[in-house]
Pseudouridine synthase (Hydrogenoanaerobacterium saccharovorans), 292 residues
Amino acid sequence: MAEKKANDGIRIQKVMAENGVASRRKSEEMIEAGLVTVNGRKATLGQRVNPYRDVIAVDGQKLLTNVKKHRYYIALNKPRGYVTTLSDEMDRKCVAELVENVPERVYPIGRLDRNSEGLLLFTNDGEFANQVMHPKFHINKTYRVTVRPDINDKQAMQLAEGVVIDGVKTAPAQVTVLTKEPGRVVMQIVITEGRNRQIRKMCEAVGLEVARLKRTSIGPVRLGMLKPGDWRELTEPELNALGSSIRSAQQQAEAKPNSPKHDKSKARGSWGSGGQRAEKKPKEKRTYKKVK
């Protein structure tokens, strides 16, 4: 490990993440909940340890930090009806059941609600999971959304500009109307955040009912022809592309640490249009995107 120093040690949440216990953020929650011990004593957040000398236990089970694990990066096509947890006190179907045959214990990166379907990533690499989930890295997440009964330009523009959910305005999104039928509209929505039930709440905020929600891609990783309930390992080009996106976001953040906020007044009403209305020309798509 890069931070292996005899005097300083490594922060315990980093050790947990690098050994596939959970993401760093989730590991911090486990430490604060008193589930982690070091040499028989409860660990503290930020505590530095020597993973080759100290005995670390998580929920009573010793963490084998000396064992070099194979890193798994999994893409799953989550079917509807499964909750994104490793276990459920209500005895509902869990996504963990669908990846039981992965040789190492993996956990989901982010989540999809029970009634949503599509691409869900799993890993035992905590640092990787944290980077993919963190909004500062701007990893695009693409959804195919079926709403009822119809959508107008104003509603689409509101979704693209951002709407207030749970007291906080969403970041700008890209909204494309794919098809329109009586009482039913299919859209593609691309966001960079990953808030709880975000797409559903965004649609509800503008008066739309979500009939179906499917995530089709996360960054360069696409669902493709993967069947519901099946999983595959990410390819090397996919991992390289994800890493490139993360590094690019880091470099931009370092280059402009105090960049001014976007002036919404100058961009209001400036939208990109990709063609005619869908009901007039079904093959054409109309895209609404906040111009920066």
In short: The two ends are 40 Å apart (CA to CA).
